[in-house]
Amino acid sequence: MARMAEPPMREPTYFVLAALLGGPLHGYAIMKRAGELSGGRVRLATGTLYTALDRLTAEGHVRLVSEETVAGRVRRSYGLTESGSAALRAEAQRMAEAARLVTDQEPEPTASRLARKLRTT
Amino acid sequence: MTGANASEGGDGAASGLERRARGLLRAYPPGYRAGRGEEILGTLLEATLPGRGWPPARDTASVLAGGVRARRNANLRLAAAVSLRQAGILAIALYICGRLSGELSILRFPGWGPSGIGWKIVLPLVPLAVTLGAAWSGRRRLAAVTAAAAGAAIAYLTFSGLSQPGVAAAEVESSLAALTIPLLALAALVLLTGSAPRPPRSWLWLPCLPVAVTLLLVVAVRLRLGPAQHALDWLGGWAGPVESPYSYLTAVMVGVCVCWLVTDFRPLLGVAAGLYLTQLDTLLAQPAQLGVDWTVFIGMNAPCAVAVTLAWLIRRPRRSPPAAS
Q1: Which of the listed residues B75, B100, B117 is the one where a domain comes to its end?
Q2: pLDDT tens readout for residues B169-218
Q3: Do B55 and A46 touch (CB under 8 A)?
Q4: How far apart are CA B232 and CA B248, in angstroms?
Q5: Are residue B61 and residue B125 in the same domain, yes or no?
Q6: Does B135 share its domain with B114?
Q7: Are residues B244 and B164 in the same domain?
Q8: Helix, coil or strand: residue A79
Q9: Domain check: are B61 and B102 in the same one?
Q10: Are B61 and B110 contained in the same domain?
Q11: Does B137 touch chain A (CB under 8 A)?
Q12: Do B46 and A55 touch (CB under 8 A)?
């Protein structure tokens, strides 16, 4: 029986994983990096980030890399696992293919359409 | 302002912010907070601009929503048998406390005080209270001993009342039938009592509320506190006195438990099953009410339908939610 296709990744999840491509980061750094990578479109809130990290850790896409104490508080850094990296690349591939469907059939610019019309007349 | 003052003011603002941020973290369940609390707090404080007294609104809302989600997931991860056992303990506790309230409310009338026959009411009260405490704290042996004592006291009171001259045969029959449910409920409570995981302490107010309101009412009547008495009477009013299974007090409990469904099905299941037990008990004591009209039919069967639906939802196999790290 054919395996059901994975549902598309949600944008915040995509950018959380993308933020970790450059190496392990702690919570606030993930929020900042995801914002930078998305051009400010994805603004992760604290609660959303930790809900996503819980889910991604349970799915095996993210793992705890290190734990340190900063100003008396625990600060944990998270990194991408192989499965997380593969899921991220698969999602990027899916989006690129979806984008090509549109960009490959882009309407001709008006100027070139006019030039072609002139040539034929 | 001097530098020192500014620094003190800044420290004060920072500590105020931290206190408020810690308060927000209470939205998460205690187990989750123990593992992740400090880390989320650190991120929350980093995400707050310097000088602000509160975390940003978006972060505040997301922490509250994350807390609700974490609580719901923690409850969904519990095995169905554990959830049903805990809801069962709550149901029996509510039923017993409802009956206790009914018995205690008699103390408000003259002649039923400690000098009268109030002691008869107090006789099973102590072992019943200990049984409930033992069930809640998972001490089965203690629960078994005190439940046996409470059962014996209830049976003694019933039989001593029936042995009076002039008691009709029908009354004897209905009194003995009415004895069935409390004794079965006590036995079931002992069977359901087990070690961890115990019912949450945050549910305790549900069985305690009717008893507390009744005791306050008794005190208000005895001290002739008119307005307090009216207020407490109103709480117990609607379809009957405070001991009635259907009262504004019940409506308050059901309302809170319906809101609780966002994170937990078990309290409403316990309340519905407790109401059903109470109704069964009432109908066994007064069988003439059976089939009287549709309101009795709905009052009898609606809690049963709610309890069965919730039990089915709890038992239904589902995808395991992610565990908190």
Answers
A1: B75
A2: 666 666 676 778 888 999 999 999 987 788 888 899 998 888 888 888 88
A3: yes
A4: 10
A5: no
A6: yes
A7: yes
A8: strand
A9: no
A10: no
A11: no
A12: no
Structure confidence by residue, pLDDT tens digits, A21-70: 999 999 999 999 999 999 999 999 999 999 999 999 999 999 999 999 88
Tell me which residues of chain B, numbers 63 to 82, contact chain A at a CB-CB cutoff of 8 Å: 63-67, 69-70
Residue B219, pLDDT score: 81
Of B36, B58, B322, nearest to A45 by CB-CB distance is: B58
Query: Is the minimum CB–CB distance between B25 and chain A shorter than 8 Å?
Result: no
Using an 8 Å Cβ cutoff, are B266 and B86 in contact?
Answer: yes
CB contact (8 A) between residue A70 and residue B46: no
**Domain boundary at B28, B47, B75, which?**
B75
Contact B69/A49, CB-based, under 8 Å?
no
Distances in Å between the Cα of B62 and the Cα atoms of A74, B29, B37, B56, B173 are: 21, 15, 14, 10, 60
Which tokens in the block code for residue B205? 């107010």
Residues B52 and B95 occupy one common structural domain: no
Residue type, A29: A
Nearest CA in chain A to B69: A51
Shared domain check, B308 and B167: yes
Q: Residue B228 corresponds to which tokens in the numbers above?
A: 């307090």
Phi, psi torsion values for B269, nearest 5 degrees: -60, -45
Q: Across the interface, which of A51, A58, A75 has its CB nearest the CB of B42?
A: A75
